[in-house]
Design a protein that fits this description.
This protein is an alpha+beta fold and 134 residues long. The chain has a single domain, classed as Gcn5-related N-acetyltransferase (GNAT) (Aminopeptidase). It is built from four helices and seven strands; from the N terminus they run E-H-H-E-E-E-H-E-H-E-E. The chain has a seven-stranded mixed sheet with strand order 1-2-3-4-5-7-6, sandwiched between helices. It is globular, with a radius of gyration of 14 Å. The two termini are 21 Å apart.
Length: 134
């Protein structure tokens, strides 16, 4: 997993990045221009995932949560190709490692109910799951 700079995001957005992220953004009701603006000002981080079992992009955000006031990594969007559940768990392990390195004490993901079984995260709201990072 490699973090892309805002400049890399800007120059690759229309042809490479947005076509991959757009289906996930539509489901999450996220606006393309707002996502790109937040990446440009550093509020969101854009990651390229490439490997034998998975490829695509992940958008994250770090900051204090409103409910528990802890430093958290949110997976805002994730989209691309993954070769099964094992590949998704491996990707989440990479994201958890990145979150720990950034000083986060938990990670949160919003998604369909099925993701809870795949990830093993604790449900905290309908369609919102978290894992405490130790």
């Amino acid at each position: 997993m490699q973090q892309l700079s805002p400049a890399d995001a800007f120059f690759g957005w229309d042809k490479r990045i947005w076509p991959v992220l757009s289906p996930a953004a539509k489901v999450a009701q996220q606006d393309q221009l707002l996502i790109l603006k937040r990446i440009a000002r550093g509020a969101y981080q854009l990651w390229r995932v490439s490997g034998e079992q998975a490829g695509g992009y992940v958008v994250t955000s770090t900051g204090k949560t409103n409910d528990t006031n802890v430093f958290c990594c949110w997976v805002v969007l994730a989209a691309g190709q993954a070769d099964g559940i094992r590949a998704m768990r491996s990707l989440m392990t990479d994201i958890e490692t990145m979150a720990r390195q950034a000083g986060c004490v938990e990670i949160r993901v919003e998604g369909r109910k099925g993701w809870q079984r795949v990830l093993g995260y604790e449900p905290i709201e309908p369609h919102v799951y978290r894992k405490r990072l130790h």
